[in-house]
Backbone:
């Protein structure tokens, strides 16, 4: 499902997409020289104090080679594109997270960390090259203009978008625009004989990073944080305060899939949980210039009380800083799987042409001294395959497949053993759901058929669903075998052969997702997460940890 602000910017865990080394055709020397040139062209040339002669020679070499390429190469060349390419190749030699963002991509990358954007406010999916509205944002311009779930968008501002292989990014770019500007959408609706034009006035659309906050039971609250954007801390404070007023005494903080973002938002969130003056994170760079230490300082909103943090292999960077600090101070129990392992600090450096260099200038360390960053000594290709390798080695499914050297052993405040070496290992391991690895389920997902069936179901049963409160729906609604077979029939028509054994293997997961997606379209985002969490293994383990008393760490620990 896509919504306008999620422009697929670069997650904090991953650098910009790069060509493989097999695709690199130019000599490394040329790449290095061109890369030096673009940086020096945007910044006054200052030789390195460690190696001034080498820096100067590289600068002069760049000038000479770039002149020859521009003047004498047999074909016309785009010097700026060559420079961008060369910079990316050079940065590969440093680490996986130093990255160059060309000017035309910089705004898109930065939008990931914004808490609002200007657009029409609509979530959509692309089914068979047809752009289909999943849900207009509540109170947003699209909803006010009358768009409904299931509407098919044929054209935007007179430009055809359906039936022509429109990409998600292209659709985002067409829907976004200056606040107050008008855009005409041509749509077709079920039961409508002809398309109609709808004028929508773009406006500010909240881009929340706290996806949902609700009470699981009378005492236990749940907060899902998807990233650390500019407004995350304020959103979190508001959500936590609201749950406290509803009776929260236990909290589950969900950081699964959170790729990071602004570090200070994560450390301020940590300060809400950690009492006194305690170290949250420190950085170590070249010399003292980039060394820093961050401590808890304020009286937090939830410094006592059972706290469980959900993490997985998609939790990275700032989310690892937060999880590591809470674990090191024995303030929370972590449930899930080992986190990504992104512990390098990037400094954004704006260049004169609007592009940006994000250069690694330090490493993150948890209060106990653990480096969060996993090894990248095997090169970029091996680094990018790390999660695949974890799966193949069984780490997603068996805790005993993960081995740590004794030299990586550290101690928490109360003496529990934790390990460094990259990523944060949870206290309670939960295996990944093997149903998600069903070949049949993968085919259904790749064709977007689970979402499409859910949307079609909502349209076919709109009156029935609107007559139910969410509580009634959640308690009584079930995905039947007949409905599953209808999904199979839709898949068969789409070229996916029926697979009875494959369906049996993933049936529970498919039922859960169908119900959650139907709830999402009918009742909103909070309903989606509530339905999913009822059958989620990590969530159920977190609740068990709380009910067993294992999350009450402030009165002393028996876990070793």
Residues:
């Amino acid at each position: 499902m896509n919504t306008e602000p999620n422009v697929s910017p670069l997650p904090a865990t991953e650098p910009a997409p790069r060509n493989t080394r097999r695709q690199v055709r130019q000599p490394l020397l040329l790449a290095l020289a061109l890369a030096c040139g673009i940086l020096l062209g945007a910044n006054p040339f200052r030789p390195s104090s460690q190696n001034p002669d080498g820096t100067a020679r590289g600068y002069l070499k760049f000038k000479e080679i770039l002149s020859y390429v521009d003047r004498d190469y047999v074909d016309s060349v785009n010097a700026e594109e060559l420079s961008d390419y060369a910079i990316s190749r050079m940065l590969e030699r440093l680490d996986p997270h130093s990255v160059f963002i060309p000017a035309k991509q910089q705004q898109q990358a930065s939008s990931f960390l914004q808490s609002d954007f200007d657009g029409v406010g609509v979530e959509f999916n692309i089914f068979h090259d047809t752009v289909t509205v999943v849900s207009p944002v509540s109170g947003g311009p699209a909803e006010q203009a009358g768009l409904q779930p299931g509407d098919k968008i044929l054209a935007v501002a007179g430009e055809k978008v359906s039936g022509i292989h429109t990409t998600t990014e292209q659709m985002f770019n067409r829907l976004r625009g200056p606040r107050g500007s008008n855009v005409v959408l041509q749509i077709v609706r079920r039961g409508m004989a002809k398309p109609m034009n709808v004028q929508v006035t773009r406006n500010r659309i909240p881009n929340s990073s706290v996806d949902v906050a609700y009470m699981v039971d009378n005492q236990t609250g749940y907060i899902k944080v998807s990233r650390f954007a500019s407004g995350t801390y304020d959103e979190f404070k508001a959500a936590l305060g609201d749950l406290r007023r509803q009776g929260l005494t236990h909290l589950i903080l969900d950081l699964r899939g959170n790729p990071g973002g602004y570090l200070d938002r994560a450390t301020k969130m940590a300060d809400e949980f950690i009492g006194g003056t305690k170290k949250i994170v420190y950085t170590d760079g070249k010399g003292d210039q980039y060394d820093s230490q961050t401590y808890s300082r304020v009286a937090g909103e939830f410094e006592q009380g059972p706290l469980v943090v959900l993490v997985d292999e998609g939790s990275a960077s700032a989310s690892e800083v937060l999880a590591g600090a809470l674990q090191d101070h024995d303030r929370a129990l972590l449930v899930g799987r080992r986190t990504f392992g992104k512990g390098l600090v990037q400094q954004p450096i704006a260049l004169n042409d609007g592009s940006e260099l994000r250069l690694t200038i330090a490493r993150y360390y948890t209060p106990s001294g653990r480096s969060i960053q996993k090894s990248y000594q095997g090169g970029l290709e091996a680094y990018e395959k790390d999660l695949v390798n974890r799966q193949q080695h069984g780490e997603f499914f068996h805790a005993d497949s993960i081995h740590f050297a004794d030299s990586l052993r550290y101690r928490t405040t109360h003496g529990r053993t934790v390990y460094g070496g990259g990523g944060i290992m949870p206290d309670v391991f939960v295996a990944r759901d093997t149903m998600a690895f069903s070949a049949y389920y993968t085919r259904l997902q790749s064709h977007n058929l689970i979402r499409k069936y859910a949307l079609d179901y909502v349209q076919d049963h709109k009156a029935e669903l609107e007559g139910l409160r969410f509580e009634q729906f959640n308690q009584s609604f079930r995905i039947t075998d007949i409905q599953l077979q209808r999904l199979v029939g839709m898949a068969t028509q789409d070229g996916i052969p029926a697979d009875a054994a494959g369906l049996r293997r993933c049936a529970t997961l498919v039922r859960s997702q169908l119900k959650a997606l139907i709830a999402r379209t009918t009742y909103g985002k909070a309903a989606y997460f509530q339905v999913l969490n009822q059958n989620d293994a990590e969530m159920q383990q977190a609740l068990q940890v709380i009910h067993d008393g294992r999350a009450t760490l402030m009165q002393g620990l028996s876990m070793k």
Q: What stands out?
A: The longest strand covers residues 356-365. The domain at 210-429 is CATH 3.90.226.10 (2-enoyl-CoA Hydratase; Chain A, domain 1).
